[in-house]
Structure formats: structure tokens, C-alpha cells
Amino acid sequence: MTILKSLPGPLLIFLGALSLSFGGLIVKSFEGATLWQILFWRSLFFSLTVLTFLIITYKREVLKSGGSWSVHTSFTALSQAGAAGRTVLIDAAAKLLGVSPESCSAEDGVVTSGEKSLTFAQIISNGDLSRTISEDELAAMPVKSPADRRIIGRDLRNRDVAEKAEGSAVYGLDAALPGMAYAMPLLPPTRYGSTVLSIDESAAKTIDGYIGALRINDPSETVQGCVVVAAETMPAVLKAVKAVSVDWASGPTASVSEADLITEGVRLAADPTVGTLYVNEGDIAAATTNAADTLAATYTTSTALHFTMEPQNALVEFDAQGRCHIHAGNQWQSLILPVLAQALEMPETDIVIHQYYLGGGYGRRLFGDQMIPAALAARALGRPVKLIFDRATDSRFDCVRSPSVCTLAASFDGDGNLSGIDHAAVAGWPTKSMAPGFLGTGIDGKGQFDGFSISGADHWYSLPSHRVRAINNELAQATFLPGWLRAVGPGWISWGVESFLDEVAAKQGRDPVAMRLALLDGRGKNAGGDGSTVGGATRLAAVLKDVAARADWGREMPPHEGLGVAVGHGPDW
Fold this sequence. Notes:
Layout: H1 2-6, H2 9-28, H3 35-57, H4 69-97, E1 105-107, E2 110-113, E3 116-119, H5 120-126, H6 135-140, H7 161-166, E4 181-186, E5 195-200, E6 210-215, E7 227-231, H8 234-243, E8 245-249, H9 258-270, E9 276-281, H10 284-289, E10 293-301, E11 313-318, E12 324-328, H11 333-344, E13 351-355, H12 371-381, E14 385-388, H13 391-397, E15 404-412, E16 418-427, H14 430-434, E17 440-441, E18 448-449, H15 451-454, E19 466-472, H16 474-479, H17 493-508, H18 512-519, H19 536-550
Parallel strand pairs: 4-14, 12-13, 16-19
Antiparallel strand pairs: 1-2, 2-3, 4-7, 5-8, 6-7, 9-19, 10-15, 11-12, 11-14, 15-16, 17-18
Helix pairs in contact: 2-3, 3-5, 4-5, 11-12
């Protein structure tokens, strides 16, 4: 695949045309070939060519289901690929019908020109499908307008509802292979730096079906100090994992507490010399110096665990050719694949991840680190191994959303008008550990930031001056593996921003909704652009107005009840 990606465009076009031609060549080799034989071979080679094109041109990094990226990053590319296929079919149909391509339309598997028509099957069987689409042509392919879409935006039933409701859906936890051993992990006191000193199996050896306790040595250092306990049955491994005793040497962060992480976050937020500039508009220094009044607040969040309904699990086997087959539910296969290759010290091409339904993802299954001890155990035992985490161990192994600190300081001029907001946001960054290629560069070209962890700070409120510093909590980074959980940054960034705006409104004696609407004026960058940003701040303001009206904002509330408001916003949404 690496070789294919490096080939020049003209050569790829030649190879594509050559591939398509083979369908006809094979058909010619069969005397008296039936219509269905012709259809099969022409369809096969056409499909293979299209699939190869998609694989070559599609970026591996976005092949994931998380962060609401599935549609956001794939819709245009796949829509244009479909348009390219439709164009090739129309061109071939036009030649067969003796009409111009401009007179043709394609719908419901049929190309029509006036009273003439051909099915896609007829076109594939008899037409010339050798045309190729260049990258420039592909980029220029039109995407259907919302009014012309027949599936998107329509009330349709999910295809997987029935099998999930009746219990026939197969999740990772349901996967099974002949001769597999069952396994459970024993985790060290700390994620990083812990090492196994000794393993006592004496009590476990009395359990029927006990296989052994395996010390996991992970060359990728993703899973450190782990011991995998294996047995012939699930009941046996449930007993054995409690009977095996492990003595560890703890890592350097063993004594770090939640309070320590928050304290460090507060310290970093207060230090103006640390962090990376994410937003720097206006003159925040002048706004602060010339302020007639100020308001400051700090908002903290604690560690947040995923607690997926289905605990982490993986079933791994090695085939006769030495290839590693992993059966598990996962949201981002291409993220864990190179890590697995490093851990197993084998090529990525020899590792196959078989996808299953997820019993809850929420961002936890974006990183398939549970596959590593399962794979290493399977190779050590020379047989399939099904590794299952119990609930307690699953929570300790979790790639949690980091504790966070948001400090915001507002400046007001002599008339009480808001003149600027200075914002410092501190947390452990999942992208830094797991996908550093996605780190962004600060607006001054210095330092990097985790765009997922700071999302929502570059909001659509127009401010005279606005500065945001994205700060990594390196103590958190060294203590655990920060992970993505649902909205990642907005889960704490937007909460801090919106809470602070309420405090600003209270200080100014203004209605919180009215103040927000005044700030959502759509000036400058807040005007929006293409795609998900169409309409910008004014679109968000319209939504806020509608919601406020539906909620009867401003009505008198019963005793001990209140009505609050907050919006999620950002140019990257």
C-alpha cells in the first residue's frame, strides 16, 4: 500500500484502466459466457478498481468513528467518489444509447435519456468503463444539495435495530474461537513505570483448568507492568485471577492524587509564561492594564471515567502464516495498528483487526490498548486467548478524561462594558500521547496544542480582546493515559466559558440570554464560512432565540427552581 500511495497520478490512471480491462479479457476467455457471468466479472473488476482508488486517496488518519467525525470527515470524500462512479456509468451508457452524456440522468439504478434507458447491470455488462477520474476532477465533483438527498435527512430506521433488540448482534464480548483460553489482567499500581518483581501462583495452581500467569513485556511501553492470568474456562479464570499474587515496584507517580493534579493545574494557569497561544485577538494586555474593574473565576473538573456497558476485551489468535487476528470492538483501528505492530514487533500488514459491535464507545474504544496484552498472551501460549476485563479492572485501565482547570479573567472599562477576557485552560492531552500528528501549532508558530482538548475556547462571541492559552498538565500526562470522552474539550471548556459568562452577566446586571445574543453579532471570523460553519454566530443566535422562546425564558419560576442557559459553539463544530 505504501508503494501504491507513492506512485504518480498518470501511472495510477494507467493501472486503473488496465485493471478494468481485465474484466473484459476474462469474459472473452469463456466461450458462450452467460449474461450473469459477464455481469459478475465486469462488476468485480469495476468494484475492485473503485475500492483501490478509495483506499489510495483516502487518508488513513480519518478512518475512525469518534468525535462525531464519521460524517464530518467522510461525507464529501465519499459523496464525490459516488459522483465519480455515476459519471463513469453515465458516459458508458451515453455511448451505448448513442446520446450525449448531458442528456442522461441516473436514478434508482437506471440511466435514462428521453425514452431510452439502461440499467446499471446492462451498462457494466456491455459498456466501456475504462474512463478514470483525476484527483482534480474528483475534487470538482458536485455534492448533492440537501433538497436532492434521498436518504440523509429522512426519517429512516437504523438497520441494526432489529438484531440489537432481539439479541443476535455480535459484540466483541461474544466472539469465540475453537480452543481459546480465557484470560484476565492484573494491573500494577500505576500506569507508567511499574515493574513486576515477583508472581506467586501457588494458590492458583490448585484450581482446575488453571494455565498460568504471564508477565507481559510490551516493547511499545503502552501497557507496563501487566500480568495476564489464563485458564481453560471463564469460571476458572475468575477464581485464578483472585488467587494469583503479584508484587510490583511502583512507578514514580504512584503517590499523585486527584488534588495534586488540580493544584498543578491551578499553578500552571496562573503562570503567564507557560502554554501555547490558541487565540490572541485585540490587546488583552491593554484591556487588563486599563481596566476600571475586573472579574476572575476558576472552574475545575475531576477525572471522568467512561464506564462502558461492555468492559474492555479482545480475542486474539495467530494463524498458520504467523498473522495476528484480533477480534474486538474498536472505534479507530488505524490508531492502534502501528502500536500493535511495535508491541508485537511485526509488520502492520500481518495484523488483522476484525470489527464487532461496541457495547459503548464514548471515546474509550478509540484506543484499543487492551489488544496488546491479549496479543502478547496469545503468542506466548501459542493458542487463541480471550482477554476480558472485569468492571473494577476496566475502570483502572481506563483512558480517562483528564482533570481540568479553567481560569478566566474579564476586564471592564469605565462604563462597565466588557473589554476583554483572558482564558487559561489546563488538562492532560490525549492527542499528545496517542495521536501527536493531530496536535496543532500555536497562532504565533510556537508550541503545540491539543485541538480536541481546547475545542470551544475559540468561540463565536465577539469580544474587544480575547486571549486563550492551551496548557498541558504534564503531571497528569505522566500519571495516566489521558483519553477522549464524548465531547472532550467542550465537556469542560464550554462549561467554564458559559459559567463565566453568567457571572459576567450578573456583574453587569444583564439578562444572560440578552447578553449572549449581543455578543453573537457575526462580526469578522464569527461570520462563519462553508460546511458546518455556515451562518456563523448569527445562526447560533437564531437557535438561541428559538430555544429561549420555547423555554419561555424570563418567566417566573416556582420556589427552589431555576432556568439556566448555555450554548455549545466554535468554528470547528
